[in-house]
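Many introductory courses stop at the sequence. We go one step further.
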Amino acid sequence: MWLIECIWSRKKEFKRIKPDIIIFTGDITNKTLDGTDIEDLSNFFTNIDAPLGKYSIKGDNDNTTFDLIMDKSNFTILENNYKLLYFKDNNPICITNGNVNLDKIKNYYKITLIHNFDEYNFDYESNIVFSGHTLNGELY
């Protein structure tokens, strides 16, 4: 499958850049994956080291296969919640999918993950937003 070949071709690149965090904004595929594809993706994602963690949100094409792959790969799926990340000092960074009570996290630097930027609520007051869905990218 093209997706698997594309991801595996990036394996050396992930090891070279040593990311601190991995963010996945949905739509792992719009096709049905077989057991081998699921295992290959899970193994690939599992072997990416990210000291601050691996976080994901669901896209409109994601189903139980997404949950299975993310669970096997030790991703935290953000659904109406947030996590506080600590990096090099005691000032936390908040990563969220935006659907949380902002009063609790208003003084933190906020990273928001959304799937479809067209549905972003600007009341979230995030410092940076990562989104998927558009496939070729969108910058605002």
